[in-house]
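Re: weekly structure request thread

Next one in the queue (115 aa):
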Amino acid sequence: MYLGMSVFEILIASGQVEPPLGLIESDLSDNDPKVRDEMIAGKRADAPGVAVFTMCVAAVYVFAAAVPRRPWAWMFSLVMICTTTFPFIVTAAGAIPLIIHWVKPEMKLHFNRGL
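Done, posted below.
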């Protein structure tokens, strides 16, 4: 999801895609093309920073998938599972069963984490 967001932000920054305006922004800019252009320019200016941020977050998730079986890795992965639900509430449906499985004693033993 984060990689998709970064690609979308790169397309916005390059001018290939028009940035979406929120409901309030659309209402404010419907009758004034100058205001609309200013809002779009501001979103295009912010897009490279958002793209870099989302790429960094995606890199952390890739790292989380490849951590060694060490006691600290269990906690790091649990934090990554929990933080998945914050930006995308849709992922909570998958994260809740994963958290339940993650806190089982067998999983802790897999990571050499004492009970």
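The chain has two domains: 1-66, 68-115. The chain has a mean pLDDT of 86.
Next request, please.
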